[in-house]
Amino acid sequence: MNVAVELDLEKKVKELKKSEVAILVKKRLIEFESFKYKPSEDWFSELCFCILTANSSATLGIKIQDAIGSDGFLCLPQEKLEQRLKELGHRFYSIRAEFIVKARKHRDVKNIVSDFEGKKARAWLVENIKGLGMKEASHFLRNVGFKDVSIIDRHILSVLCDYEMIEEPRTMTPKRYEEIEKVLEKLAEQTDTNLAELDLYLWYMKTGKILK
Prior knowledge:
By secondary structure, this protein is mainly α. The protein folds into 2 domains: 3-33 and 150-207, Helix-hairpin-Helix base-excision DNA repair enzymes (C-terminal) (Endonuclease Iii, domain 2); 37-143, Hypothetical protein, domain 2 (Endonuclease III, domain 1). Helices cover 69% and strands 0% of the residues. It has 12 helices and no strands. The chain has helices at 3-17, 21-33, 40-53, 58-75, 78-87, 93-103, 109-113, 118-128, 134-143, 154-162, 174-190, 195-207. Helix 3 (40-53) packs across helix 4 (58-75) and helix 5 crosses helix 6 (93-103). The relative contact order is 0.15.
């Protein structure tokens, strides 16, 4: 690892924290934190959003979530849900509809994961929600207010590789995911951020956007 390059990333994040981007980041974090006051239906809707983003995009996931809503995710028959996902442009409409219907047995996901800290909640989600891997489970938890897990997607990996903090992984095993998460934990400590906040800054560096 090139220490000078690593310090450059630390410096870049600190600069963003002093820029107008910080206002957008703080606004988004407040939205995430507000989920503790929201009903279980909204948490389930966010879970479905994260199921939909796997091998897809957050932009498309937001579009579908807005169109279908929590009632649709909870109540539409699988065939109808599949049809709606197809109409709305999801490439994997059939398997995602199946995953969402199977997830309904955990519609009280708010009460379940609220009893855990982030990494234990993530382990439960990966084990019990078909369609969620480490990245998607972390995405869900961050979006409902958890701050101690990392969403290691291709944008985050790209930033870390650009700054020579990691070598691009050939495959993303749970062990490798946790190793990269430790790198992000160190960077969060150096930049006085939490992992949820750091993710938004790194994602902005690569995309120019602050999404959920």
